[in-house]
């Protein structure tokens, strides 16, 4: 055997040894067959405690109470048409009887293709101004818009919500100054599921307090200046534009900094929290203004999928509150669950337990449904 054949044979032997040592047999997940749960009764009063008996161990055991937001059948639901309510607050200043041509409009588009003045002009806009409440000349502070129902648009893939300011040239007075803050948008389904649409990614179960908060950072605000965008200087900050960035531009990545402040292309300092302001300055004889404040596109049918009410057991055997290990007489554990005042009398709930066993290459799962009636 020549030296080339010897080298090749040694190489093959090395590969075979490495393959044998490096590979290991994949272990299948344990079966969840036979997993079962029973309840001590089938009907309960509010204030009672249900005691569930679990017959078999699993790596993970999840519990769904059947209430809105905690329904096993909706654990993978991400989209559904519901009622879409828009809310915000607005304020007005520098208002008098000589600048009556100045106004702010609420508009919605389902076909906005870009983020510049040409795209705005080519889009179809529905005027929703009359459906909201607005400040009057004598109003001080912010005015609540009330609930603006925009459900008529939820058959579209996405919508863009805009506030359009129109300021008219006036030699007798300065133009009106507007502010917008605390915008929220929600999708409420017939089963009571409530989803905030401008919110953080949905990694937790519903929370009435945090779900109804206005989150500036998740709206994706941007501005488009259509009329009166005077050239800025690097000495003073400018006016005549909403104080947010253009689409894709924020206070972190803007190329324009004036007086150590991040600015948009109009030279206006970029705001990072509410309120958002359109400031025309205090000069009379200001040219006509047309400026748009627009949200990023949003799908009105977005739904936060339902979450388990409790993880009764996790991979490291941490028991949930109410769980008690038995491990005898064909009983693995019991789980006590209180029927509190959030349940509705006269209604039945599909309470579901899900057992999961997993391995590196497999997942086995079994669900058990118990229909529980509340008296």
Describe the protein's architecture and organization.
With 375 residues, the protein is mainly β. The protein folds into 2 domains: 37-75 and 306-374, Sandwich (Immunoglobulin-like); 83-294, no CATH class. 8% of the residues lie in helices and 34% in strands. It starts with a helix and ends with a strand. The model is unreliable at 6-11 (pLDDT under 50).
What is the strand content? 25-35%
Rg result: 30 Å
Unreliable residue runs: 6-11
Secondary-structure element order, N to C: HEEEEEEHEEEEEEHEEEEEEEEEE
Distance between the termini: 89 Å
Helix content: under 10%
Q: What structural class results from the helix and strand content?
A: mainly beta
What is the makeup of the main sheet? 6 strands, antiparallel
Average of per-residue pLDDT values: 91
Give the CA-based shape: elongated
Tally of individual domains: 2
Summarize the structure.
This protein has 375 residues and is mainly beta.
Could you name the key traits of this structure?
375 residues, mainly beta, Immunoglobulin-like, 2 domains, 6-stranded antiparallel beta sheet
């Amino acid at each position: 055997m020549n030296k080339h054949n010897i080298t090749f044979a040694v190489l093959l032997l090395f590969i075979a040894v490495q393959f044998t040592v490096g590979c290991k047999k994949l272990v299948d997940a344990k079966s969840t067959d036979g997993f079962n749960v029973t309840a001590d009764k089938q009907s309960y009063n509010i204030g009672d405690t249900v005691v569930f008996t679990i017959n078999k161990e699993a790596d993970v055991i999840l519990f769904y109470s059947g209430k809105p937001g905690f329904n096993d059948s909706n654990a993978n639901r991400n989209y559904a048409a519901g009622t879409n309510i828009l809310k915000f607050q607005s304020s007005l200043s520098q208002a008098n009887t000589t600048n009556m041509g100045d106004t702010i409009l609420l508009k919605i588009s389902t076909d906005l293709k870009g983020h510049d003045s040409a795209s705005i002009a080519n889009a179809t806009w529905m005027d929703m101004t009359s459906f909201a409440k607005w400040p009057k000349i004598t109003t001080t502070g912010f005015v609540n818009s009330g609930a603006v129902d925009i459900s008529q648009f939820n058959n579209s893939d996405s919508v863009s919500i805009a506030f359009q300011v129109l300021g008219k040239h006036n030699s007798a007075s300065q133009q009106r100054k507007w502010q917008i803050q605390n915008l929220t948008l929600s999708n409420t389904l017939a089963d009571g599921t409530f989803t905030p649409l401008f919110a953080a990614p949905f990694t937790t179960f519903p929370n009435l307090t945090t779900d109804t908060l206005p989150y500036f950072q998740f709206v994706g605000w941007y501005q488009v200046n259509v009329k009166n965008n005077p050239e800025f200087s690097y000495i003073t900050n400018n006016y005549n534009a909403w104080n947010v960035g253009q689409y894709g531009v924020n206070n972190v990545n803007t190329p324009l900094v004036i007086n150590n402040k991040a600015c948009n292309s109009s030279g206006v300092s970029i705001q990072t929290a509410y309120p958002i302001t359109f400031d025309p300055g205090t000069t009379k004889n200001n040219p006509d203004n047309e400026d748009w404040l627009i949200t990023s596109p949003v799908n009105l049918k977005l739904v936060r999928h339902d979450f388990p009410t409790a993880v009764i057991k996790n991979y490291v055997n941490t028991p949930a509150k109410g769980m008690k290990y038995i491990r005898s007489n064909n009983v693995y554990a019991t789980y006590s669950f209180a029927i509190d005042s959030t349940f509705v009398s006269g209604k039945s709930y599909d309470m579901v337990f899900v057992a999961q066993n997993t391995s590196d290459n497999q997942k086995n799962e079994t669900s058990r449904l118990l229909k529980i009636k509340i008296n």
